[in-house]
Specification:
- 37% of the residues lie in helices and 22% in strands.
- The protein contains 15 helices and 16 strands.
- Strand 11 and strand 12 form a beta hairpin.
C-alpha cells in the first residue's frame, strides 16, 4: 500500500521524469501535508530515533555553559540572540538555560529564538520552555528560517540539524559524475537510477576531494541554510556550533532511513521514515570560510564533551546512588566509542566571526585549514 506522499511523488515523476535525490528527500521530510517532520514527534522510544539531549540532561547543560563562555568571550553584550536550529522537543534549550542560571546576566541578555518548521515539535518546545518564559517574563520566538531571526549578535546551536538537510548524489562512472535520481522501475516500484549525461556541476563540487574510484558517490548537502547562517554571523557577529554525525570530507553513500529505531529502505513508505545523510563537515567549514568566518574542528563529540567537563558533571549527578548506573550509562553513550555510542561518530564544528578568537573548548591549532 502506497503512502499519500508516494502517490504525489509518482505523479510528479510521471509528469516531469525522475527527480533528484535531494528533491525526494526534501519532500519526504518537509512536504507541507505529508512530510515526516510535519506530521509527528519523531523522538524517543515511541518515535524513530533518539538525540543526545534526550539521552541525558548533561548534554544540554554542558552546551549551556559553553554558550555562557562564548557570550563572555563576545564581551558579554547586553542583548544577543540565543538561537537553536532544529530544536527537537526543546529539551536541549531547556537544559542549557537551567545551567546558564549560574550567570544571571547571561539569561537577562539572551533572547531565545528557535528555528523550527514542524507544528508538532513547536508545541513540544513551547511546553519545555514554558518555565523559562514564566521566570524570565520573555516569550520564546519561533521562525521557519534562519533569515527570519532578528538582527544582532548570536550564539547558534545546531544539534542534528544539518544531517536532515536534503543531499543530491552523484555517482562516478569513469566517464564523469552522473546524478542519481528517483524514478519508477519496471515492476512499478520507486527505484534509484542515473542520468545518462554527466553532470556539469559535480566536477566543481568534487574539486576538493581525492580522485574517485568507479562507483564512488558524491553527496552534496543543500547549502542554503549553511550560507544563510554563515552570512548572518559574518554580518552581525557571534558564533555557531554544529554537532552531528558525519565526516571531514570524502566520497560515500550515507543516505539512510530510520523507522522505529531500525534502518529501513529510503524508498519505502515516503513520509513515514526519517531520512538523513552524514554531514560533510569539510564542506560546512568551507561554506563558513567563504563568508569570511573562522572554522574550528571538527572535533569528535567525546573529546568536546570531555573538555567541557562531562566526567565531573556525571560524578556530581551520581551522588544520588539510585541513579548512578543510569547516569554512567548515559555518559558512555554520549562520549564513548563503542557500538551504539556517539563519541566518535558525532563531530563538533564551530563557525566564528573573525573577531571572536578561538572558541571555548577548541585549541588555536584546531582551526580548519584545507
Amino acid at each position: 500500500m502506497t503512502t499519500p506522499l508516494e502517490e504525489e511523488i509518482r505523479l510528479l515523476i510521471a509528469a516531469e521524469g525522475p527527480m533528484p535525490v535531494g528533491r525526494y528527500m526534501g519532500l519526504c521530510l518537509g512536504h507541507p501535508r505529508h512530510g515526516y517532520y510535519v506530521t509527528r514527534d519523531p523522538l524517543g522510544a515511541r518515535g524513530d530515533f533518539t538525540t543526545a539531549p534526550e539521552i541525558s540532561q548533561m548534554f544540554g547543560e554542558l552546551l549551556g555553559l559553553w554558550a555562557v563562555a562564548a557570550w563572555q568571550q563576545m564581551g558579554a553584550p547586553g542583548l544577543f540572540r540565543l538561537v537553536e536550529l532544529g530544536p527537537g522537543r526543546g529539551t536541549l534549550m531547556a537544559d542549557a538555560l537551567r545551567a546558564a542560571r549560574l550567570v544571571p546576566a547571561f539569561g537577562e541578555a539572551a533572547r531565545i529564538h528557535l528555528v523550527e518548521t514542524s507544528p508538532v515539535l513547536r508545541k513540544a518546545q513551547a511546553r519545555a520552555l514554558a518555565a523559562h518564559e514564566e521566570r524570565a517574563g520573555e516569550q520564546v520566538s519561533w521562525h521557519a528560517r534562519i533569515e527570519d531571526v532578528p538582527a544582532g549578535p548570536a550564539i547558534v546551536l545546531a544539534n542534528e540539524f544539518f544531517d536532515a538537510l536534503p543531499v543530491d548524489q552523484y555517482v562516478w562512472t569513469g566517464a564523469g559524475w552522473h546524478e542519481r535520481k528517483v524514478g519508477v522501475g519496471a515492476q512499478g516500484q520507486l527505484t534509484f537510477g542515473l542520468d545518462a549525461a554527466p553532470s556539469r556541476m559535480a566536477p566543481t563540487l568534487a574539486a576538493h576531494l581525492p580522485p574517485p574510484a568507479p562507483g564512488a558517490v558524491l553527496e552534496v548537502m543543500e547549502s542554503g541554510p549553511a550560507r544563510a547562517l554563515a552570512g548572518r554571523i559574518a554580518a552581525e557577529g557571534g558564533i555557531a556550533l554544529a554537532i552531528d554525525y558525519g565526516h571531514a570530507g570524502g566520497h560515500g553513500d550515507t543516505l539512510q532511513a530510520l523507522k522505529a529505531h531500525r534502518f529501513a529502505d529510503p524508498l519505502a513508505d515516503p513520509g513515514e521514515a526519517d531520512l538523513t545523510a552524514h554531514v560533510d563537515f569539510a564542506r560546512l567549514a568551507l561554506l563558513g570560510q567563504e563568508a569570511g568566518l573562522k572554522a574550528f574542528g571538527p572535533l569528535e563529540q567525546g573529546d568536546f564533551l570531555a573538555r567541557l567537563g562531562l566526567a565531573a558533571r556525571a560524578d556530581r549527578l551520581m551522588r544520588d546512588a539510585a541513579a548512578a548506573a543510569a547516569i554512567a550509562a548515559a555518559a558512555r553513550r554520549l562520549a564513548g566509542t563503542g557500538d551504539g555510542e556517539m563519541g566518535r561518530l558525532f563531530k563538533v564544528l564551530a563557525l566564528a566571526h573573525p573577531h571572536f578568537g578561538t572558541p571555548p573548548a577548541f585549541d588555536p591549532s584546531e582551526e580548519f585549514n584545507r
